[in-house]
Amino acid sequence: MEIETPYELGDKLSKEDWASFWEQNKEEANRRLDAEIPKLDYMDFSEGVMILCKKCHFAIHRGFVLCNICKQHYKSPNNDMCSTCRERLLRVYENDLLLTKLNQKLSKYPDYFDDDEWYYNFEKSTPEEKEKILKEEDEKNRISDLIYEREAELYSLFINL
User: Fold this and answer.
1) Which is nearest to 146 in space by CA: 83, 99, 81, 109?
2) Contact yes or no for 60/52 (Cβ under 8 A)
């Protein structure tokens, strides 16, 4: 049995027309559907299938993989880390190098374990020596502050790795 007057895509179909169409062709539609159901080949999602978000899907199709370090950005398979992690690591190395230089510079100045000793040496000095001692102390404090800032930045970089 062939459907007598198929509806065109642009035709409007009212509820009454649909009900009458279905009543006329119900047996034929069910018969065709019953014949097609066994032919359906359902996908097996248990193995070999990756369900990805849009970002991950496009990244994989472009040949990128998730960074092993931050697990947030993508990297080329040829690289060992993403550009964000590489920049962070370079900043860590630069800060470490700067800390080494600052500590070497700080080691030039005498280290007073006791404030009384420093005050005693300061009091017995001439005015020129006092000025020199104060400049050295200011430089030493400035370097110590820089070291503290760099160590704090280095610590935050390690925390974020």
Assistant:
1) 99
2) yes
Bridge partners for 74 per DSSP: 66
CA distances from 117 to 124, 140, 143, 146, 149 (A): 11, 17, 21, 25, 28
DSSP state of 45: T
CA distance 27 to 127: 114
Counting every residue written for the chain, the total comes to 161
**What pLDDT does residue 57 have?**
86
Model pLDDT for residues 11-63, shown as the tens digit of each residue: 677 888 888 888 998 999 899 888 888 877 776 677 777 788 888 888 888 88
Own/partner contacts of 66-73, CB < 8 Å, gap of 24 or more, are 69/161, 70/161
Non-local (6+) Cβ contacts of 12 within 8 A are none
Over the stretch 80-94, which tens digit does the pLDDT of each residue have? 888 888 888 888 888
